[in-house]
Design goal:
The strands form three sheets. The chain has a nine-stranded mixed beta sheet. A seven-stranded parallel beta sheet has the order 1-4-7-10-13-16-19, with no helix packed on it. It has a seven-stranded parallel beta sheet with strand order 3-6-9-12-15-18-21, with no helix packed on it. The radius of gyration is 18 Å and the shape is globular. A hairpin with a 4-residue loop joins strand 22 and strand 23. By secondary structure, it is mainly β. Helix content is 7%, strand content 36%. It folds into two domains: 105 residues; 69 residues, UDP N-Acetylglucosamine Acyltransferase, domain 1, CATH 2.160.10. The protein contains two helices and 23 strands.
């Protein structure tokens, strides 16, 4: 058996059979040629009315970059929940993704490293060419209410194109992170971040303007 064949077989059999289940929810351009790949340990709970819309690329859940990326991934989708995938997007091992009833998760292209936590109550949009490090948390809702402040507990979040987010960053409801921005490790983002801005801290504030990263 050739080396190429061995590599191909190893790659093929590393795909979790639950990929077939997820592909049954696919609509859009790729519906007849679905490309959701599940790798490693994976659990799911998906309402029958939920949809995964693939346009031009593939969605991978449980991508293994190293041995540290071997945690169990989880996908929960409520009634009429949607995932919209524009291009190729990878979640590494240990991703916990929850999309509640009537909520939308919109993905462009790029990756989110291991052990991310996504809680989508309304709408979260992540742009193209993003690089998001491990232990990333994003919530578009306060979940609970305070007395006298019971309005707008959920607000959409938008992360623009070509955004780099460091390790252990949390992004909270109503935030827009502009194109080309960089978020320093350990930050908590509670307000909008301008394009091409380096921001960091708790809460995150501008550190430097007109940054470029590759």
């Amino acid at each position: 058996m050739s080396l190429f064949t061995k590599i191909w077989l190893r790659k093929f059999f590393s795909i979790n059979p639950k990929s077939l289940v997820l592909n049954s929810f696919v609509t859009g351009k790729r519906a007849m040629n679905s490309a959701i790949l599940v790798r490693g340990k994976f659990k799911y709970a998906i309402d029958r009315s939920a949809k995964i819309n693939l346009h031009n690329g593939e969605l991978t859940i449980g991508y293994k970059y190293s041995e540290a990326d071997s945690g169990t991934s989880l996908l929960k989708m409520g009634k009429n929940a949607e995932i919209n995938v524009e291009n190729n997007f990878d979640f590494m091992g240990g991703a916990h993704i929850m999309i509640l009833e009537n909520a939308k998760l919109n993905l462009g292209s790029g990756y989110i490293h291991r052990d991310c936590k996504i809680r989508c109550f309304k709408e979260i949009t992540i742009g193209n060419n993003v690089a998001i490090s491990e232990n990333f948390t994003i919530w578009d809702s306060d979940v609970h209410t305070f007395e006298g402040n019971e309005q707008n507990i959920s607000k959409p979040i938008t992360i623009g194109n070509h955004v780099w987010i460091g390790t252990n960053v949390t992004v909270l409801k109503g935030v827009t992170i502009g194109d080309g921005a960089v978020i320093a490790a350990g930050s908590v983002v509670t307000k909008d971040i301008a394009p091409k801005t380096l921001a960091g801290g708790i809460p995150a504030k501008m550190i430097k303007e007109n940054v470029e990263w590759r």
